[in-house]
# Entry
Amino acid sequence: MLLPDKCSIKDKQGDRPNPPSYIVSIMHDSGEYMVGVVCEGHKGNMERRLNKMQESSKLPKGAIKFVQLRPVGTDCVANHTDNLTE
Ligand SMILES: [Zn+2]
# Structure
């Protein structure tokens, strides 16, 4: 699955979106509906935005689900361990 590598929420002053921390989807009767990715700092913004869009029927109604992406730093730690064994 190909995911965007930047947060879906753009700040007004921001032209440097953060890397995403969560995949955001809506659990709907007909299945899971992926709406985007979001960074840790914009999780609340995203939820409020989706709630509004659900109220105005721009998105299907259903529970909003945040699935955490691979924790940041894991690769880095693994690489350091490899280096130490040489
Ligand atoms: Zn963000």
